What does this fold into?
Amino acid sequence: MADTKWPDEGLVAAAREGDVASLTALVSGSHPHVRRFARSLCASPQDAEDAAQEALVVLYRRIGMLRATGALASWMFRVVRNECIRRTRMFLRPPPPVADETVDSAEDEVMRRLEAERVAGAIAELPADQRCVLVMRDVQGHSGSAVAGALGLSVPAMKSRLHRARAAVQASLRGEGHG
It folds into this structure.
């Protein structure tokens, strides 16, 4: 059974003071928790692992900024959540304009970004199984059979999850909440 306790406050305090051995132990002790949280938020295992690594880099570089030694878990969860959302938004960005296209006004660009943030938020709120299917199929463009195979699902089960995910995102964007 995996250790479910975060590193203790004494280790956090020593790491904040610059003790290299404590900082190393803190990062390695936090890794399983950070990875588990990233897997629950990110759309793919690769994104989860990347988000977890980024969060550990933030921990390593900014441990001195942590005000309360007992706040490590909540701080790391926020860092992981923000990284997962950032990765989702990267997929939702429109491609750069082609040279002969008309340039959008600043207002149009702001509206497009606000809409992309709304969509990213709606996707981030999906249950992990639906979010993974939606991102792999609609954002990353994988075929239905490839998504089903990667997730160990039958094609009908994948289609069912995809349908529920799309409906939930549409409902969220219409302001109807989760459905």
Residues 20-41 form the longest helix (22 residues). The chain has a mean pLDDT of 83.
